[in-house]
Design a protein that fits this description.
Number of helices: 11
Shape: globular
CATH superfamily: Luciferase-like domain
Structural class: alpha/beta
Order of helices and strands: EHEHEEHEHHEEEHEHEHHEHEH
CATH architecture: Alpha-Beta Barrel
CATH topology: TIM Barrel
Oligomer: single chain
Amino acid sequence: MTLRFGVHTGLQHTSIDDLQSLWRRIEELGFDWISIWDHFYAADASGDPHCLEAITAHTALAATTERVTCGSLVYSAGYRHPAVIANAMATLDQVARGRTVLGLGGGWLKGEYEAYGLHYGSPGERLRMLEEYVQCVRGLLTRERTTFDGEFFHMHDAQCEPKPMQARLPIWIGGGGEKVTLRIAAQHADGWNVPFIPPDVWAHKAGVLDAHCERLGRDPSEITKSVNVGMAFTDAELRRQFGPISDAVKPGVLSGSVQEMVDKVGAYVDAGASYVILAMRAPFDRDGLERFAAEVIPAVRA
């Protein structure tokens, strides 16, 4: 298994100019992946509305870079009709020249749903919507015509043309719910991502995903397994980036000395992670990123 490193760039309190400069440097440093999130408000439960729009930022990422995979972690099934995402990703994959990965999730930031009058629903309802969503998007991206009659979405001979450059644009599912989310990933996804959990918990959830695959008759190796982790050499940097959610994310943050970071990355990899993705928020810790690329990544790969 080849270990790949990526950076997940938050869209709050930043600008496209700042992001483009950062994306170019991430690519120069040799990272394999860059992604964006999907929020209308800052993703820290503060109620701050300063956040760039996801599809536009995702397209800018694709146009700014040349080599990295251009991902999303993750688009919420509750924010747009699946045909909107499917058509956007088909065109975006042409911009990216076949480097797009589409991450989908059930949504979690209740405040922005309520602010915009979007239906939030129960966890079970949001996950049923997600399962329908991924099937609709997959059909539109791969089939000539898609008909679907579900609880939330209905399509009749729907078409999405032109198709993406990739014959099968990868769809990842985000989340760690063991009964439903991981079963949806096992049944429908090409990849799985979960943020801010320690290696032992990640290993347990990866095992649950594998068990769902086995029950469904699917080879678990077909699913790319990844983790989003914070990166903060100091506690002050952790709190500067993550503010009110610092304590909640801390178990899934690479922190301390270089060797401590190397050891923690190794624990994720030993448990089956093939992507370790650094979740960064503005103001971006560029010095820390440079140090991570120069000292941690070579030590992990040694």
